[in-house]
Amino acid sequence: MTNFLSVKDAGNINELISSANNFRINPFSQQSLGRGKRIGLIFLNPSLRTRLSTQIAAQNLGMEPVVFNASQDGWSLEFEEGAIMNGTSVEHIKDAAPILGRYFDILGVRTFPSLKNKEEDYNEYVLNQFVKYSGIPVVSLESATVHPLQSLTDVITINDYLPLQTKMKPKVVLTWAPHVKPLPQCVANSFCEWINAWDKCDFTITHPAGYELDKNFTKGAHVTNSQAQALKDADFVYVKNWSSYRDYGKIEDNDVNWMLTKEKLSPSNNAKIMHCLPVRRNVELSDEVLDSPNSIVTEQASNRVWAAQSVLAQILKDLP
Ligand SMILES: NCCC[C@H](NC(=O)CCC(=O)O)C(=O)O
Ligand SMILES: NC(=O)OP(=O)(O)O
């Protein structure tokens, strides 16, 4: 593995899951793999889980992680080719990224979408420039359109429960939830493309009209505007808000009735509840759901370490 930017870089998903499961049993089994190697973790946006789990994963592999909160502590970066830099941006990515490439063996980058320029966001304008100019393997720590370390974690978490399932394929539902802010589509896009590629689940997406996701990510999934219909017999319910893809970055209609409650889950198959976190309690999901034994969000977040470790191990093995 060279880069880890989306499901396309994952190779065999089941092998990544199995490697993650091995690290969960024995976190320090491959300490020599990363010895003498350094990973730079560059954050252009806030993070709790990704920042900490990736540091822990790197340390478990014997690597040294260096975290840089670029948006707070670094010079303001310019990404536009040919820009006349007489404004607020101080340093061009063409100058900064090659230096990161000399300091580190692997680079992790978190960069959210602008939610203003759909074309730039969906072309991964920022992340791709880190890839182009750093010259070293790049791991997405969540980008404009996808969050592959989160999605790998999500399939690892679902996989843990597969032996308990009686159906050939468990019913996995991604439900839109209300929010106070317009959020990226990336966690939802990414979950869709990983669940589709993994192909072990019967997958339904439900959202109010106007929140259709980009078909490049969802194709193959059942899509319905009826949350009640989607939740019926569900084995896993993944809750997430996203802003409109069509009317890009806008809140079409923040229907509070879409908040997930215990009552709505009663026709489900005692569904496990998932969310990438952070979550707005009693806006996206009720306390009752989040605090119930069906919620596996803490377990899910704890799997972030093993997902990151399996990816970093694969990249380390393939370093030139
Ligand atoms: N990294 C996990 C999710 C990040 C982001 N959530 C947020 O920005 C939440 C912000 C808030 O709740 O104010 C998202 O949905 O893509
Ligand atoms: N789920 C997730 O990526 O969390 P952070 O934004 O805290 O890293």
From TrEMBL:
Keywords: Amino-acid biosynthesis, Arginine biosynthesis, Transferase. InterPro entries: ArgF'-like, Asp/Orn_carbamoyltranf_P-bd, Asp/Orn_carbamoylTrfase, Asp/Orn_carbamoylTrfase_sf, Asp_carbamoyltransf_Asp/Orn-bd. N(2)-succinyl-L-ornithine binds at E142, H179, K240, R280. Pathway: Amino-acid biosynthesis; L-arginine biosynthesis. It holds the Pfam family OTCace. Its EC number is 2.1.3.11. It is an enzyme of class 2 (transferase). It catalyses: N(2)-succinyl-L-ornithine + carbamoyl phosphate = N(2)-succinyl-L-citrulline + phosphate + H(+). Residues 201-314 form the Aspartate/ornithine carbamoyltransferase Asp/Orn-binding domain. Belongs to the aspartate/ornithine carbamoyltransferase superfamily. SOTCase family. Catalyzes the transfer of the carbamoyl group from carbamoyl phosphate to the delta-amino group of N(2)-succinyl-L-ornithine to produce N(2)-succinyl-L-citrulline. Is essential for arginine biosynthesis. PANTHER family: ORNITHINE CARBAMOYLTRANSFERASE, MITOCHONDRIAL, ORNITHINE TRANSCARBAMYLASE, MITOCHONDRIAL. This is N-succinylornithine carbamoyltransferase.
